[in-house]
C-alpha cells in the first residue's frame, strides 16, 4: 500500500525590511525541493498585512519523499537561511491534500476542518472559476488543441485558486470551517501534549 501524499505548510514572520530576501529564499527552497524525488509542487501564500505570516506549502507524492526532503542537508541549509530572516520559531503543519488551502494565519493551531466541509467550500471556490475561465480565455485559446487549452486553463486556475480565491473563500467561511469548539479542542489537545 502506497504511503499517503505528504504536504507541509510552514508559517513564518519575516523581519521588517527583509521581505525581498525572504521571498528570494522561499523561491530557492521551492527550486531545491523540486529536484527531489516525489516533488509535486510548492506555493507561497503572502501575508495579508505587512506583519502577517508568510506561508510556504510543499507537496510530495508520499510522506516518505517529504521526509527525505526534510532530513536532507539541502533542506537544513535553507532552514538556517530562513531562520536568519525571520522572527521566532516557524509554525509547521503537515496536512493532507487540499487541506493546505484551508490554513489561516489568524486561526493558529486549529483542527483541520472536516473533509465534507472542505469539499463544499472548495466547490464554491472552484465553480465560478471553471465556469468563467473558458469564456475569458476563448480569445487566447481559440484554435488551440484541446489538451493545450486545458493546460493553459490549469496553469492560470491553480495559482488563482491558491493565492487569490481560496484564501478569500476560506476567510468568508471561517466561522463555519473553524467553529469555536474546534479551536478549543485544538488548544486543549496541545496543552495535554507533554512535549
TrEMBL record:
Which residue ranges does the record assign to the ABM domain? 6-96
Report the SUPFAM superfamilies cross-referenced here.
Answer: Dimeric alpha+beta barrel
Origin, by domain of life?
Bacteria
Keywords, comma-separated and alphabetical: Membrane, Monooxygenase, Oxidoreductase, Transmembrane, Transmembrane helix
Q: Which InterPro entries match?
A: ABM_dom, ABM_predict, Dimeric_a/b-barrel
| One Pfam entry name | ABM
Q: Which residues cross the membrane?
A: 119-140, 146-166
Supply one GO molecular-function term: monooxygenase activity
- Determine if Transmembrane is one of this entry's keywords: yes
Q: Does the keyword Oxidoreductase apply?
A: yes
Q: What is this protein called?
A: Antibiotic biosynthesis monooxygenase
Amino acid at each position: 500500500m502506497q504511503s499517503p501524499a505528504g504536504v507541509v505548510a510552514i508559517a513564518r514572520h519575516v523581519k521588517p525590511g527583509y521581505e525581498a530576501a525572504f521571498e528570494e529564499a522561499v523561491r530557492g527552497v521551492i527550486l531545491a525541493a523540486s529536484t527531489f524525488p516525489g516533488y509535486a509542487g510548492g506555493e507561497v501564500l503572502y501575508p495579508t498585512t505587512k506583519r502577517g505570516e508568510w506561508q510556504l506549502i510543499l507537496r510530495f507524492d508520499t510522506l516518505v519523499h517529504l521526509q527525505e526532503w526534510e532530513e536532507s542537508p539541502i533542506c537544513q541549509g535553507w532552514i538556517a537561511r530562513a531562520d536568519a530572516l525571520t522572527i521566532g520559531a516557524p509554525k509547521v503543519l503537515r496536512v493532507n491534500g487540499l487541506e493546505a488551502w484551508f490554513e489561516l494565519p489568524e486561526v493558529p493551531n486549529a483542527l483541520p476542518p472536516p473533509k465534507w466541509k472542505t469539499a463544499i467550500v472548495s466547490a464554491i471556490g472552484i465553480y465560478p472559476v471553471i465556469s468563467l475561465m473558458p469564456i475569458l480565455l476563448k480569445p487566447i485559446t481559440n484554435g488551440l488543441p484541446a489538451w493545450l487549452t486545458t493546460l493553459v486553463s490549469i496553469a492560470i486556475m491553480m495559482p488563482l485558486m491558491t493565492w487569490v480565491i481560496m484564501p478569500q473563500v476560506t476567510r468568508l467561511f471561517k466561522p463555519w470551517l473553524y467553529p469555536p469548539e474546534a479551536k478549543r479542542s485544538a488548544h486543549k489537545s496541545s496543552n495535554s501534549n507533554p512535549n
